[in-house]
Write a structure and sequence with these properties.
483 residues, OB fold (Dihydrolipoamide Acetyltransferase, E2P), BirA Bifunctional Protein, domain 2, 5-stranded mixed β-barrel, 15 helices, ATP-binding, cytoplasm, EC 6.1.1.6, metal-binding, magnesium
Amino acid sequence: MLDDIISERLKKKERLESLGFSSYPAESKRTHGVDDVLKNFEPFLREEKKVFIVGRIKAVRNQGGVIFSNLEDETGKLQIIIKKDLLSHFSLIEECLDIGDIIEIHGIPFVTKRGEKSIVAHEMRWLTKSLRPIPSEWYGIEDVELRLRKRYLDILVNKDIKELFIKKSNFWDAARKYMKKSGFLEVETSILESIPGGADAEPFVTHHNALDVDFYLRISLELPLKRLLVAGYEKVFEIGRVFRNEGIDHEHLQDYTQLEFYSAYEDYRGLMRFVEKMYKYIIKETLHTFTHSYRGNTISWDSRWPKIEYYQIFKDLVGLDLKKATREELLEEARRRKFDAASNLGRGRLIDLLYKKVVRHTLISPVFLVNPPSDIEPLAKRMKKSSDRVERFQVVAGGTELGKGFSENNDPIDQRERFKEQMSLRELGDPEAQRLDEDFLEALEYGMPPAAGYGFSERLFSVLMDKPVRESVIFPLMRPKNE
């Protein structure tokens, strides 16, 4: 069936070209977008103003000597009237025009007897001959994998999906605008790294042919940006892609956009105030409201966000006191709850597992989850009165983490020891434990000012849109079709 349609359309293309019509010309003469014509329709109608408009054919109705079609560009949709007595090649249009073709119309405004605003064509030419049929706007593409694999069709026939990615652009525009008006310098750092760092994640590996050396795709923006604090910049941020070679679920991607920023002479307390204001600005600019649904819950961002102590909520819900709980006790609790916990998991990884399985899903309204164990955050500064905890917070809402920040550890001696602890975990079989980065430690030895840093990813946008994160990516990574 599909092959027959493609074959028929190829014949139409050949027919057009045999008569001297180009199926794919390089230029168009467009003078107005559809929205411009509609906004100025009354004066254009009075003046009988001729306009060039372009767009894709979304419907064709042949009524014998007159063809009515709907033409759509990025700005809107308008009816086109093609009359036999006005175009010498009407019979060719009648024979070859298909839904999906992109055409150029030169014509004047006209109102039908039913009152529909239209353009009567005085000239028409093809800009692109469509060779494949476009799915119906009414039925769309029902198969989720097919929608994601052929996202261009999903956007073409689904206005909500098209609007989603306009909102996503506005989301990142708002984030960038807020950072710049707050005095931050936007920078770009390398995607390729000789040592991946700044997060607990497995990296993707690639090979540099000219240097004959393996490099890693970055898993975080953190360490290069902190080097810039050593260099003397006091407020820096980057919006860029990061890559993590980990599992796929409704909250995680392997290739995604992240914003990270670092502010010298700031700590996590001031950072929390800044982040709350920033989120409220971004959310209002994106949604035009502070309230939305996510996975059956209503989330409201406009009130003050409470602070919840990590140790206390862990004790309340898991039943273990992190001041005393050993690695063995944590492992026993995880297995008692039937969680998949390998025997070589370190204490920090077990704490994180129990938190994610037992605690996180209970946090629906926005909160700051503060002061977790140092085991789970090797780059954060220890608390003055409780060295087993770090000055870190996470924004949690809808049962998921939507950003993380902390007072940065600028003590090169302590940072080296904590990197060594991470390397010991790697030797015990933890592939996500962080690597010791001598170059970063050397930078710290020159002196990094006290600072606080924060990062959030496009997961925040997906929560605002009440969609799985993969649905919020314009072209999500998919397994090759032939595998």
